Amino acid sequence: MHTWQDEKIKIHQIVPSLRDGDAIGNEVIEIRNALRRMGYDSEIFAEYIHPNVSKIARQLHEYKKNADNIVIYHFGVAGFEITEFVKHLPDKKILIYHNVTPPHFFKNINNSIFKSCLYGRNELNTLNKFVMLALGDSEYNKYELDNYGYNNTGILPILIDFSKYNISPNKETIQKFNDDYVNLIFVGRISPNKKQEDLIKVFYYYQKINPKSRLIIVGSNIDMEKYFDKLQKLIKKLNLTDVFFTGQTSFDEMIAYYNLADVFLCMSEHEGFCVPLLEAMYFNVPIIGYNSSAVPYTLGGCGIIVNEKRYEEIAELINLLINDELIRKKIIENQKIRLLDFDMSKTEHKLKKYIQSVILTKKSEIIKLVSIVICTYNRASYLERCLESLKKQTYLQFEIIVVNGPSTDETDRVLAKYPEIKIIRQEKLNGLSFARNLGIKECEGKIVAFIDDDALADENWIKYLVEGYVDESVGGVGGLVKSPEKSNMPPIQFDRGIINKWAIPTAIRKENDELKENEFPIIMGTNSSFRKDILNEVKCFDPYFRYYHDESDLCVRIIKKGYKIVYKRNAFVIHYMVEGHNRKSTYEMNYSEIMKNNIYFIVKNFRGEFLSYTLRPAFSLYSWFRHLFIYPYLKKNISLRQLFVIYSKLFRGAIKGYIDGLKFNVHLMITSKKYMKT
Q1: Count of domains observed in the chain
Q2: Is pLDDT at 362 greater than 70 in this prediction?
């Protein structure tokens, strides 16, 4: 019985296609029924729905996303746009992995399926960043999920209602094959990974032992015409007459074949679960299976496992099973015991526990998806290096959003190498804050991180940033910014930086330096992260700050809302400080923009204080005058003429920032009064 905490939660399933009689389709329906028995609202959504199940499922476009709900995504083939749709849902996500057949089996057999399996494997490698729980329907599938880097995995066997198998077998099929022949069967679609040619080779040797025998291969050959043709040629070459391909069968026909079977023979070299093994157990058909993929896991010690495909020996083994009643009986008894592990009530109980574990997971324990935003403009080579550094991250639950340009260099070519990245293309430059806000809008993560295109992230960068979010009071986390080795820059660019009410930042401070009354901790934009809900609460970056103090303004506003800015020194990046349209060299910067932002920052953020309109703006301007006079001018890095040009830009910027700050405060005061009246 679920609690009041999850009464409103709906648990829906998404599957690319829902077909009648398909193993995955059957399980999807059974899971829906189980969820409804647990008391949850539950529906099935699919892109393709077979007419026979049209009343059971709904079209995918009807799905209504909800962050409070749970969506179960069944993955066994490339979903393409369906996978992308699931990734971007705010719902809590559970992946049920049915396995994607390795593509090499279909090379030169079916190019479309080859590509689909290839893409499916690639998609599997990206989904781990988006799901809270990943379940394999076998130990083998869980093992694959673990190898793909999924953090929270489990096993949920396929949910099968064997009561549905208690129907009368197809009479025509029984009459056709019910004689004194030994019937060897295999059930499964005609496919290279299932190695039906090896079944034929084993049968070739068995028929030499017992001429009164036949091989019945149950399954469709749709889309496998080339492989099916190879099988027919093999049969002809071996001069066999008692090999029967049933093609697509009805359910009662399949039941008939199990009733007729004397041995179930499986030579498959890739199975994600292999439901027919359980069906053979249910119908008391002794099993011989090749030791590959999920087959030994599903058998779980019952049946007979062969480690090598020695066809003559396997044929002798079949003969032993047919003629030695004691061995046959013992194997069937063991299979019956194994089948109890797949009792529907047991599997349903496991499902319930998994669902409850997802529901009851505390917010702080949920795998945090991090959205990384990179704003770039004509720095293709640096951008590529940045992206490569992100591929090496030890924390895998992240997505990348690149806000591009409008770049005119090779940036598009670089981005084409990374199809998993979300790309936002600007038509014109609107400033860094505007670009970052565009990126924030596309973020799915609970945490939004920012790194410059000319920076490289340490492999543990995201991991340490996420560790900084210890509770709900943390609004942002940033870290150390280093300079590249063997550069002319100081080795450290930013370390525990602060800004004061005079808009004067201190980029490097000692660990034990105490924060003064008029100081605020800040983080550098190229190594910063913020909770998305708090970004929305403070209305993201202020687009007025096209360059400089954009992150400082954001940090101050977050702090004034009562949240903390946390510094994690071990979360570091290396920043190359490449020349750009705002910074051409050490002393060729956009001084007007810098001073404009300085004064605006003071007047806007500390508008209730008299000093913000008098001494603070004046001192901020003076500090820049003094800095530029002492360092570049007296050290003869710039001429007197250059100094006065810079002074002129600083002064014009200060005037504009002061006026714009006043305008902002007046506008805020007017809108506040209107709000109070309403």
Answers
A1: 4
A2: no
